[in-house]
Amino acid sequence: MTRDIQLKERWERLVTLLSDRFSQGEDLDLDAIIYLIGVQELGQVHREFKKDEKVNLMHIAICRLLEPYGFYEFDFFDEEGWPHYKVKEELPPLKAGEQTVLMKEAIVNYFVEREVID
Fold it and tell me: Which domain of life is it from (predicted)?
């Protein structure tokens, strides 16, 4: 099975799984899944977040997702428990489609690591 086909199948399985769990039947989009990962990484799953905190949650998720690719490195937790990352390497310029594929691959790998999907 080619890498692209495997990624597509895993992505579809993951979207179905997360949508069934966190949405009432509507498929979650990429941004919604990134947000969920941010909440998971923060570890404060049972609270409401302000708009600016939601943006920060997505930033946390992106840093965590791209950490294995060498773009970010965990730095520290602040006094409120929010993780902070430092840039190790700037992301190369990517076209929109390439960005989407990179993020989907990183998300799939994140959930494979956690044994949510295989």
Answer: Bacteria
Tokens linked to 104: 């989907």
Structure-token match 């399985």, residue found: 13
CA–CA dist 31, 64 (Å, integer): 15
**Other C-beta atoms within 10 Å of 35: how many?**
20
Burial class (CB in 10 A: 0-12, 13-18, 19+), 31: exposed
pLDDT tens for each residue of 2-29: 878 999 999 999 999 999 998 887 899 9
* Residue 37: count of CB within 10 angstroms of its CB: 22
**CA neighbor of 39 nearest in space, from 75, 70, 81:** 81
CA distance 102 to 97: 9
